[in-house]
Amino acid sequence: MNDQSARGMLLADQSFLAFRDLLFRGEVRAGQLVSISELMEKTGFPLAPVREAVKHAESTGLVRILPKRGVLIIEPTPDTVRSCFHLRCMLDQEGARILAARLADAPMQALREEHAAVRNQALEGITPELQQWAMAVDWKLHRALAGSLDNPLAAQVYASNHDRITVLQQSRRLLPERIIPAMDEHLRIIDAVLAGREEDAMRAVRAHLAGTLRWWGIGLSEA
């Protein structure tokens, strides 16, 4: 590979990361149709790397390229939302089972303390800063569950799905009333793992899926 092609690959990677940051910050939102020229302006990258970035994003399910129309960001339809969270649930269940079988303690105990701290603070009052902290803590558990699989292929799938869910979540406002139920659902997962109760841990993960879909107005019966 010559220096010019290596530089082109680097620009494409940088362009993709810049595009993904726009999605994560909600500057380009789920369901929005944008043009390549708009993305060039927003990312500050030239045509070729932006096109490569969009192709990469399409391969991971973040967007659809509509010929002669533009780039359609993943849409928060019930089917898409259900599919993304169900995929996460399937991987999380196995992760919870593995951690419970190992009687994991140190990482899970630290996570439990952080979840409890978020919950206790939410009881006193919910601020925008607490909402951001709650989301970060929420993802910490999901990453811990996925990480316990110790499977590079599963890790790739999980990472792509994390990106899709993050973009989908930008399409909805944060609901303060969801923080305490979500922390409670997570605490039940963690407690089952710490107690070595594999089936209970998996059941708690499925209950968390149901709670999440209810927040989106989607029932499990529709799956």
TrEMBL record:
Record key words, sorted: DNA-binding, Transcription, Transcription regulation
Entry's Gene Ontology molecular function annotations: DNA binding; DNA-binding transcription factor activity
Lineage: superkingdom: Bacteria
Residue stretches making up the GntR C-terminal domain: 83-211
Domain HTH gntR-type: 15-73
Pfam families in alphabetical order: FCD (PF07729), GntR (PF00392)
Cross-referenced InterPro entries: GntR_C, TF_FadR/GntR_C, Tscrpt_reg_HTH_GntR, WH-like_DNA-bd_sf, WH_DNA-bd_sf
Full protein name: GntR family transcriptional regulator
Organism: Castellaniella ginsengisoli
